[in-house]
Amino acid sequence: MNNVAIYPGTFDPITNGHIDIIERACKIFGKVIVAIAKETNKECLFSFEERVHLAKIATEHIDNVKVEAFDGLAVNYVRRKGGSVMIRGLRAVSDFEYELQLALANRNLCEDVETVFLTPQNKYLYLSSSLIKQVIGLGGSIKDYVPDSVFDAVKNKMLSD
Ligand code: ADP
């Protein structure tokens, strides 16, 4: 058995909810790789280079975490990294169906990769990257939801658009 877990996602941008999941995963696994999807069907505010950069700064305080970008299927990336565990976050019930579908599809693609679900603390249960973008777009404050570095980056990005 190996001790590497991969946490794949879009992270556009990384939020305190993602960081909560990463911190939990890092207590369970020897090494956690936050894997940022280069291609996504979501309309992203940040380029993948920016998403990687923001995630690196936001996780600097954690020893056993690494941030990388990947393309193609997440399960293939997990195998390439020599891992067998994929971390996903489960928030409210609304995540469940989508995440279950994804986990089953990934199992069909690769029987050896196991999806492990973690839940964040209550205050992040309804937090998403889309909410962050929506709130700041309407002039609201997102200070409680993202690290300062991400707050500044989102603000600058919105002002420059
Ligand atoms: P994706 O586009 O792959 O869904 P996201 O960056 O939106 O990528 O999310 C990556 C993972 O993190 C998903 O499993 C998602 O459910 C989880 N996640 C996102 N926000 C939170 C949060 N506030 N608390 C816990 N998990 C979260």
What do these coordinates show?
The protein is of the alpha/beta class. The protein has one domain: HUPs (Rossmann fold, 3-Layer(aba) Sandwich), CATH 3.40.50. The protein is 43% helix and 18% strand. It contains six helices and five strands. A five-stranded parallel β-sheet has the order 3-2-1-4-5. The longest helix is centred in the middle third of the chain and has 17 residues. The protein is globular, with a radius of gyration of 15 Å. 37% of the residues are buried. The mean pLDDT is 93.
Which CATH class is shown?
Answer: Alpha Beta
- Poorly predicted ranges: none
Which H/E pattern describes the elements? EHEHEHEHEHH
Taking the alpha carbons of the first and last residues, their distance comes to 47 Å
The CATH architecture name reads: 3-Layer(aba) Sandwich
Bound molecules: adenosine-5'-diphosphate
Strand count: 5
Helix content: 40-55%
Mean pLDDT: 93
CATH superfamily: HUPs
Q: Would you kindly provide a brief summary of this structure?
A:
By secondary structure, the protein is of the alpha/beta class. 43% of the residues lie in helices and 18% in strands.
